[in-house]
TrEMBL record:
It is found in: Cell outer membrane. Residues 105-225 form the SusD-like N-terminal domain. This is RagB/SusD family nutrient uptake outer membrane protein. One of its GO terms (cellular component) is cell outer membrane. It comes from the Bacteria. Belongs to the SusD family. Its main location: membrane. InterPro entries: SusD-like_N, SusD_RagB_dom, TPR-like_helical_dom_sf. The keyword Transit peptide does not apply. Residues 279-566 form the RagB/SusD domain.
């Protein structure tokens, strides 16, 4: 009897403990009964904003250093040899022929759909209120559609053939949604969200982090620019739609004429936390530190990309600038790019004149690193120079003594906001549209405004002794000889240097329909400098996009169809 008594007491204690657990409401969890106030709906909108910054190092959704920089001619993977995070090595070799491999491709897909889901959940909550009870209803819905369109746009760049559903879709509907929309139809579905945002967002928001009308105009312009280069089923560009290009001109002009944005005096202002949310930032993901949480809300997607041997960092040496990128910064006696000869040999940086943007982009032995002339970049900081050479990237890195920097174990996070669209991008989008519309003369002053800003961006680049490590010579393009063909070449060059290592390059090459040509030419030379690229080859009709994750195809019982070339 005594034994049974103890069993009974134990059962009562266990039941009581379980009851206490069941009665406990975890912090930050909402039930349906909590969503009866506009404050709760506002919380879900904030959560949707947070979601677009909720990627991670192996499932990135905003930093395209692996997808857009390493897969291009801008950078090598870096790190501790080719086997260190081998999936990125496979991307660099254009060898993702087994869609079940690795975590990057599938985890990025999942993280992007998580952000889309948050936007849809928030929209359903906001729609439950009348306009009278929730005066901000239309504005919040417009913000949410903007956020959803942002995530779908990113998915479209990465995977091309994606399922698209909105806030009205049930779980059953989602499981029936195929990824077989035509390229044009899927672009238009995403565009409809941006257009709603344009129609319903104010020109100015009281809170700087919220999307406004001009951010939506800029983003729709970006979408229409990609859509203008019409692709067939195997990703070849078959024509350029001039109606879409006219839309790009109109949308970018609305942003430009608003007077809200301008080029920063120094391009460095785009890469420092002290000058974030400046006049050039059209829309940015916001990050924080010292906000009352353990480590803040930080960007860890670039956390592998710090100089490995630098004592202030200690890890991990990924994202190494390519020799081709360094060579592309060289200029001729007239201060113009060496379009046809830039890659004939490795640039001698002690004698060659270069574009100023080189020292805002690439860590080079003896050159100022990230605007700190007391600790110049050193070859000793490079993790595996025998494989990847001695160059490193630095645009999205911060100094270890920055107030935005936090080291979490071996990895680094920063609270510097992440620009999704900048004003320099808006200007170059308009210039590109003018060139392809046969109006290159209108593009010339736009492109030269970018070059003139670059030439003036030397204030933070002096060494401790007051001299420059590089010989700078950047001049505007002359009007003489400014044909459409020359203007197109200049525009493509300018985009590369202006956004070097920021993850734009690969997607630009695909948009222009020249990815196979440029990248195979790059590999043919680069593999003689970096033997690890010996087996790399870009296969047209396949490598323009990532494979649809096999896990998603399996989950939908074959409803999703694999992208061409990955079967």
């Amino acid at each position: 009897m005594k034994h049974k008594f103890f069993i009974g007491i134990a059962a009562m204690l266990l039941l009581n403990a379980c009851q206490k657990q069941l009665d406990y409401t975890p912090t930050g969890v909402l039930s349906s009964t909590d969503l009866t106030t506009t404050e709760a709906a506002e919380g879900l909108v904030t959560a949707a904003y947070a979601a677009i910054g909720n990627g991670d190092m192996i499932g990135p959704i905003y930093s395209n250093w692996a997808y857009g920089s390493v897969r291009s001619d801008d950078a090598y993977k870096g790190g501790g040899g080719t086997g260190d995070v081998g999936e990125i090595d496979a991307m660099e070799h254009y060898n993702l022929v087994t869609p079940t491999m690795g975590a990057f491709v599938s985890r990025t897909w999942q993280n992007l759909f998580k952000s889309i889901s948050r936007a849809n959940v928030a929209m359903r909550a906001v729609n439950a209120f009348s306009d009278a009870s929730f005066p901000q209803k239309k504005t919040r819905l417009a913000e949410l559609k903007f956020l959803r369109a942002h995530s779908y746009f990113t998915m479209k760049l990465l995977y091309k053939n994606i399922p698209i559903f909105d806030e009205t879709a049930t779980e059953a509907d989602i499981l029936k949604t195929k990824n077989d929309l035509s390229n044009d139809a899927s672009w238009n579905k995403i565009a409809a969200d941006f257009q709603y945002a344009i129609d319903n967002l104010p020109a100015t928001q009281t809170q700087i982090a919220r999307a406004n009308k001009h951010a939506a105009q800029a983003y729709l312009a970006k979408l229409r620019l990609f859509q203008a280069y019409e692709q067939n089923a195997t990703h070849q560009v078959t024509s350029i739609n001039t109606t879409r290009l006219q839309e790009v001109v109109s949308l970018t002009e609305a942003v430009i004429s608003s007077g809200k944005y301008s080029l920063s005096a120094d391009i460095a202002d785009n890469f420092l936390p002290e000058t974030e949310n400046g006049p050039e930032s059209v829309f940015a993901i916001q990050f924080t530190i010292n906000d009352g949480t353990t480590s803040g809300r930080l960007n860890y997607e670039d956390g592998l990309n710090y100089p490995h041997g630098a004592p202030q960092y200690g890890c991990c040496g990924f994202h190494a600038g390519s020799q081709n990128l360094v060579n592309a910064h060289t200029t001729d006696a007239n201060g113009l790019p060496n379009f046809s000869t830039f890659n004939n040999s490795n640039a001698d940086l002690s004698t060659a004149s270069v574009d100023v943007r080189l020292d805002h982009t690439v860590g080079i032995d003896g050159h100022v690193y990230k605007y700190d002339n007391t600790k110049p970049f050193s070859n000793s900081w490079v993790r595996d120079p025998g494989v990847y050479g001695y160059f490193h990237t630095m645009r999205n890195q911060q100094l270890a003594n920055s107030s935005s920097y936090f080291k979490n174990g071996p990895f680094m996070g920063v609270a510097k906001n992440y620009d999704i669209i900048r004003y320099d991008d808006v200007l170059l989008m308009q210039a590109e549209a003018y060139i392809e519309l046969g109006q290159p003369d209108k593009a010339l002053p736009i492109i030269n405004s970018i070059r003139n800003r670059a030439a003036a961006s030397t204030g933070r680049l002096k060494k401790a002794n007051g001299t420059f490590a590089s010989i700078y010579n950047v001049k505007p393009y002359p009007a003489a000889g400014w044909t459409q063909a020359y203007a197109r070449q200049a525009l493509q060059w300018e985009r590369r240097l202006e956004f070097a290592t920021e993850g734009h390059r690969f997607f630009d090459l695909v948009r222009w329909g020249i990815a196979a040509q440029v990248l195979n030419q790059y590999i043919s030379v680069e593999k003689t400098r970096r033997p690890f690229l010996a087996t790399a080859v870009f296969t047209a009709g396949r490598d323009e996009y990532l494979p649809i994750p096999q896990s998603e195809i399996t989950f939908t019982n074959g409803l999703y169809k694999q992208n061409p070339g990955y079967n």
